[in-house]
């Protein structure tokens, strides 16, 4: 677990350019200017039309054992398995929607702000498949985090209550990056961290507050609250939604991942699971929304472990995108 920092509140995406062999040094001011320009480019990219056309990047496992994109919600419902979060509190501003480009398309996921140790960067936890294309083996682009998306109906980053936040880097585990498809290997390593510098308002993201993370995370028969912005089926993607209940091992996935009763749909991927959650702001990130099964009203997530910690540690000490190879 890592301590929280209180800073003012973040965003930008730095793209490294190929320099000629005899390149001259780049002034710090030029680097900052380029980063600011890239940040504004990403914000401009997300027009109302692109946001409306973005699709959830979520997966379900079918009866023949294959993971496929999640097309519709599972049946069921209830106040603890997929209800609108109406109680307010810090979780509203610490959880948000993620928009990104991957394999030529625009996609939506969810994410949350996690504790870090730096005064110049913040960290956002999301699913690996919301940060990295496991088939084409490349990081997502145009990645942007919008906290409290409930309050951002016009998606104007200058008017949104908590702004918009781009990333200078996305960090994933090699177990996810080398999976080749969304499969059992991918589910075990389906976590990622976005590195978020100062935002378009010159503030730091974790000034909004952040949650600690634990490795290992959830415990079997422990209770968690899961949050996200489901955007498929009966959900419209503009309402922070939650499930809460006891965790259990996914015996259909060799007990390698956790499950909870939950009918959130596509778009909720990457949303956090909190143990010890309270409306006042307590809670520890112990897993996240990762995948489901066709026809079963459950959500499943990875078991945070030393690999998760290694990916976190890399993200907490670097500024660019990378893949972390954890020695066995």
Indicate the topology.
Blueprint: H1 28-45, H2 48-53, E1 55-56, E2 59-61, E3 67-69, E4 81-84, H3 90-94, E5 95-102, E6 105-114, E7 122-126, E8 132-133, E9 138-139, E10 141-147, E11 165-166, E12 169-173, H4 174-177, H5 184-188, E13 192-196, E14 223-228, E15 241-246, E16 248-249, E17 257-261, E18 272-275, E19 284-288, E20 291-293, E21 296-302, H6 306-315, E22 322-324
Parallel strand pairs: 1-6, 2-20, 12-22
Antiparallel strand pairs: 2-3, 4-15, 5-6, 5-10, 6-7, 7-13, 8-9, 10-11, 12-13, 14-15, 14-18, 16-17, 17-21, 18-19, 20-21
Q: Brief description of this entry?
A:
With 328 residues, this protein is of the alpha+beta class.
Description:
The chain is an alpha+beta fold and 328 residues long. The protein has a single domain, classed as Beta Barrel (Thrombin, subunit H), CATH 2.40.10. The protein contains 6 helices and 22 strands. Strands 1, 5, 6, 7, 10, 11, 12, 13 and 22 form a 9-stranded mixed beta sheet that branches. A 6-stranded mixed beta sheet has the order 3-2-20-21-17-16, with no helix packed on it. Strand 2 and strand 3 form a beta hairpin. The N terminus is likely disordered.
